[in-house]
Backbone:
């Protein structure tokens, strides 16, 4: 498994949008994204910080149900 890069919240949102997620709403500095799949609806919350912590980014990918390789390919 490749290492996660140090990116901003805005860069993470752009990569997730390339993977089919759409912004549903924003409250303060947190953006909620959702993606409709044939099985269910997948959602995740991304904070708009200058640099996301690696653990936070890993949690976002876990919520979004995507792999690290998929995410890095769409950066």
Residues:
């Amino acid at each position: 498994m490749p290492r996660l890069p140090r990116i901003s919240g805005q860069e993470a949102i752009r990569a997730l949008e390339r993977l089919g997620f759409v912004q549903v709403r924003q409250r303060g500095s947190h953006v909620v994204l959702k993606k409709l799949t044939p099985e269910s609806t997948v959602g995740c919350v991304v904070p708009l910080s200058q640099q996301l912590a690696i653990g936070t980014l890993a949690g976002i990918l876990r919520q979004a149900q995507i792999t690290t390789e998929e995410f890095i390919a769409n950066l």
